[in-house]
Known about the structure:
globular, binds magnesium ion, alpha/beta, 142 residues, Rossmann fold
Amino acid sequence: MDNITNSFEETRKLGEEFARSHLARLKYGVIALYGDLGSGKTTFVQGLAKGLGIKRRIISPTFIIVRNYKLEVGSFYHIDLYRIQNEKDIESLGIEEIIKNPENIVAIEWAEKMGNLLPKKRWNIKFEYLDEDKRRITIVSS
Length: 142
Ligand SMILES: Nc1ncnc2c1ncn2[C@@H]1O[C@H](COP(=O)(O)OP(=O)(O)OP(=O)(O)O)[C@@H](O)[C@H]1O
Ligand SMILES: [Mg+2]
């Protein structure tokens, strides 16, 4: 599914709608987010969290790589691998265990750094910068 958004609000809304239509029913899932710095990944995750009923504000992680938000069942995890160097770091953060728990919903920025540790069944969301306020956001399930 191809979407063009014209503001950060629209991207946030898209994340919220995605959560409501796809995540509530599934109850779990891994969402792999791909795209350059400032392409809108965190903005989308803010919408995701809202759609999942999370009231706490989602902020762009600076040094914290893994953040946990309690859901009615399980947790929502926001993971940002920007600063990760190798798969050893991923192992030490316990990310594989987080993903394995079917009660968790896990959104991962810079998901390409997971290599083949990413589960085969997941959502892939690609963010492309078109101009200052315009992004192309492609959502595909695998
Ligand atoms: N259509 C749009 N969608 C999303 N963000 C937009 C859009 N137009 C402008 N912006 C701005 O672009 C920036 C996107 O930042 P955001 O933190 O979401 O990117 P990111 O992909 O998470 O970057 P990083 O890789 O650094 O974590 C914000 O400042 C936001 O206001
Ligand atoms: Mg980000």
